[in-house]
Every structure is written in C-alpha cells, then in structure tokens.
Amino acid sequence: MKFGRIAPGQAEGAVLGHSILAGQRKFKKGHRLSAEDVAQLVDAGIDEVIAGRFEPEDIPEDIAAAQVAQAACGEGAEVAAAFTGRCNLYAKVPGVALIDGDAVTRLNRIDEAMTIATLAPYERVSPGQMLATVKVIPLSAPASVVDEASETAAGDTPLIRVAAFQPHNVGLVLTRLPGTRDKLLKKSLEVIKGRLESLGSRLSECRTVPHHENDVAAAISELRAAGCGMILVFGASAITDRRDVVPAGIIAAGGEVEHFGMPVDPGNLMLLARHEGTPIIGLPGCARSPKINGFDWVLERLLAGLSVTRDDIMAMGAGGLLKEIPTRPQPREGDGGMQDGIPRVPRIAALVLAAGQSRRMGVANKLLAEIDGKAMLTRVLETVVESQCVSALLVTGHEADAIGALADRHGVPHLQNPDYEQGLSTSLRTGLAGLGEDIDGVIVCLGDMPRLKPETLNSLIAAFNPVEGRAICVPTHEGKRGNPVLWGRRFFSAMKDLAGDVGAKHLIGEYAELVCEVPMDGAEIFLDIDTPEALALLTGKPSDNQEKSA
C-alpha cells in the first residue's frame, strides 16, 4: 500500500488513514473516498488528507481478516462479519475451547500486518462467547501474508475449535467419619449437582458410606453397575497420600490411580483414577465451594469428551494460581457485548415495523404484495430470521390479522400497535417496549425493504461496539446513508419519547460522535416500496395506474 499525504483532488479511491471533518460531514478512518466525497473535501477547504492507495498485491483489511478467521474456524465455532480490519470468532456451543497455541505463535510471527489473539487453551466457554479475534494492523495486508496466515490457521485441524459438553450420568460417593455433619454432606451433594448440571450432565446416583476403603470400593462397584459413566469420590477427610482411604478404595474396586496432586491452587489434592475406561476423581476439599478450582479444569475436559492424562495435569501449573485471580470487572452500563467482563456476541434484536396503512399504494397493502412469488414482508422476515439477530419482533397495525399470520409462519412474535394511525413513532414505541431486558441493541427494519440481506444486518452487528464509540451503526453505499439502522440500548428511552410520524433519524445528528458508518456492497439499503410505480419497477409488472394510462 502507498500511504501518506494526498491532495483531495488526487484522493478519489484512496482509504483514509485518519478521520477528518469536512464542513458538517465527518469522514472516518477507513472510509474509501468517492468522487462526491472528494468534492466535499475541496469545498470545505481541506488541503490534504492522510490516506492509502491499494496496490495490486494488497488485500483490504476486512477481506484479509475474514479470510484468515474462516480458515481458523473449526467445529463448534463461528465467524462474525469483519469490521475495521477485525474479525471475531465466537463459540456456537457450550464446551471447552481447543486452541492450537503453537499455531497461534507461528501465525503471529508471519508478518506484523496480521495478528490473532485467542482465549487460553481449554477455557470453558458459553454460546456467543468470543474465542478469538483476527486483526489486520494496517489498512491492508499483502496477499502472500494472508495466504500463509490462512494456511497456518487451517493446519491439519483448524486453529480454533470448541469441544462441546456431552451429557453424562455421574455417580457420587460421599464418605463420613464419626462427627461428620449431615449439613456438610448435603452441601457437598448440592454443589456437585449444580456443577454437573451447569455442564449439561446430571448426578444420577449417590452413595454415602463410612470413610473406609472397603466401603468406598463397594460404593464404586455399585455405581459402575448402575451405569455411571464417571464417578466422583468426596472423602470426609482430604486425601493426603496415594495409599490413603479414597485411593485404596479405588484400587480395591479394581481401579488404577493415574495421578495424585496437581499444580493448581486451589485444587492441589485432587486424584485422577480410572476403572476400565470409567474416569474416577478423588475430589479436593475446595470442591465443596462453587468457586473455580483445579477439579473444574479436569471435570470440564472430561465432560467435553477429551482425555486427561497425568502429563496434562502436570502441565496445568502456568496460570494455575487460581486463588489470586481477581473478580472480573463488571461491564459499565450500556456496554453491549460483555458478560461478566467477558466479550460475547452483542445481543441485537430485529424490530420489524409493519403497521402502516400504505396510503400511497392505494387500496392494496403493499406488505402483502408478491415479489417473485413471495409477499414483500415475507422477504424481510426471512432476512431477519436468517441473520445473527438473537430475536425478532414485528409490530402490526393496519390489517393486523393478515400481517400477523405472515409473522406466525416464520416464528416471529408480533405486537399490535393500537395507535398506528398516529404515525411511525407509535410503532417504534410499541416495539421497543416489547424487547427483552437482555437486549444490547436493536436494528429497526422497515417492512417494505424486500431486497434487504442477512449480511447487511450481520455487518451492522459486527460494527456495533459502544465501548469503542460505535453505538449507532448506519449502513452506507457510495457514501450515502440508508436503512436499517442499529441503535444501542442507551437510545431506547429517547426513541420512546418520539411523537408523530417520525423516526429517530434526528438522534444520528445529535450523537454524531457515536455514529459508525458501515459500508455495504449493494444499494438495497435505499430501496423501499411506497408507490405502485415503485413496485412495478421492482417486479417488472405494470401497476394499475400504468395500465390505465396505457
């Protein structure tokens, strides 16, 4: 890439390296300048811009990041749309993150233009949690670098995968000594049961026996006979030696102790054993607490179908000082895409407004008009359902029964706006009131935009990041703004206060510093159908008005 200061007259097609204000318009970093943009810069008296021009071997940052992210994405993971040279990977299923750490290092050593950052290997993840981010540092990367990084990311197996938790029937042995309180046994049972259920498994059998190896052995045999695929042994007293009661009971039952102790604190006194393929774990005393400890690291891997060997346990020391981990910071109010301080996919809802009376269309309801064999509204509903929006809601008004029936066919819930004749603001208010409290933002979709694509919505979601100042995401094509717009939750209150037949467009001007323009490839973001002539132009069929004039 050629990068430096360029006179506006020679800047058409260049990509801005820094944001610049030209009159009332702010062009942001990464924006590709069109001829119209150049004219605005000249009219505003801008003498020069700092920008880059792509050379034949350059791959633009978003395309480069997406290519490498796709190569790195394996089973149980998914790739979000790229934005500002960044492409994130997220977990599709609950499980354990499988990260090839050596491949991560090799990829990051290829060239300074290409980076990847991931979670630590074997970290427990939830659906929607971020696994990794691929970031192209400059505005483009050489094709040779992107190809090598993609090959490294793909490897024999993809660099990033998720081993999904598999349901297990687990047995538990609790031992008691004279003086062991029933309250302690009950607490141990409840904590273990809760741990297993959070991982998709269940405690199917429990035996409480005296703290003696013969009783432990008998209980293990009973649990194996009952079909338990894993057995946990919680001694009334912590295991202090390989020859202690719990390991002795495992051996007496026919099992084999593979390893005692682990370099993780809390969790040092954990014991790993096996009986003909059935894993048996002697629990450390800290397992009575729901706080994370070394036992969790072993349990999570086993329930995800991964093997755990003594070498694996011995390798857990780096990062194993768990008692010193501070509480994760809570996200600030309005920070979408965070959960307990952990990045996740923003929870964005799609709000489809379909209450209008279509006055300019005449008698017919334009939303029910067929386009290529499907109702116009059906095409919009298909788009939102196929997108990465976590939920969708439709607002009805005029001809509510017919409109609601279309929504029902696509599994989209709908609300009736009783005040729809008073204008767009009432539908917006009705829809926002129906969204869940866990929603980070909403894409307000118009029901008369039949060419809208799921990729458009996904690109808006990828751009959304209130922490980085991108709380309103607006699609653009060749420098012009269109619809739909993604609004962060912080604007919901102001949007509910609107009145009349107006939307929230004025808020874009009031909060210009929080607006992010998201370039789109196509002009469908401008296409809405308001008249019979516009519908005829789209379908290629003459309107009633055209037929009469003919």
From TrEMBL:
Entry keyword set: Kinase, Magnesium, Transferase
Family matches, as InterPro entries: Bifunc_Mopterin-bd, MoaB/Mog-like_dom_sf, MoaB/Mog_dom, MobA-like_NTP_Trfase, Nucleotide-diphossugar_trans
UniProt cross-references to SUPFAM superfamilies, sorted A to Z: Molybdenum cofactor biosynthesis proteins, Nucleotide-diphospho-sugar transferases
Gene Ontology MF term list: kinase activity; nucleotidyltransferase activity
Sequence ranges assigned to domain MoaB/Mog in this UniProt record: 171-304
PANTHER family on file: MOLYBDENUM COFACTOR CYTIDYLYLTRANSFERASE
Protein name per Swiss-Prot or TrEMBL: 4-diphosphocytidyl-2C-methyl-D-erythritol kinase
Organism per entry: Denitrobaculum tricleocarpae
Source lineage: Bacteria, Pseudomonadati, Pseudomonadota, Alphaproteobacteria, Rhodospirillales
